[in-house]
Design goal:
mainly alpha; 0% strand
Length: 80
């Protein structure tokens, strides 16, 4: 089961990169594309956490969420 979860998380990560590149190519705005990538990375982190419930997994997921929040705030600040 853990192998399937890892494969699914890898697939979500790859999909996030594809969506990010597509959104950036279409809009040429990092403000639009970056939150998409970070949401996919957060989803992959949560999937990995479901497969391996450990403190290191929890800390990695918290770090991904923190980076997403800081990056989204930074991008929003530059747009105003």
């Amino acid at each position: 089961m853990a192998t399937a979860i890892e494969a699914a998380a890898l697939l979500v990560t790859a999909a996030g990169v594809v969506v990010f590149l597509t959104a950036y190519a279409a809009t040429r705005r990092i403000r639009t594309a970056l939150p998409l990538l970070l949401d996919f990375l957060m989803a992959a982190g949560l999937m990995r956490l479901a497969g391996d419930l450990s403190w290191s997994g929890i800390l990695l997921t918290v770090a991904i969420i923190a980076v997403r929040k800081v990056a989204a705030y930074g991008v929003a600040e530059k747009s105003t």
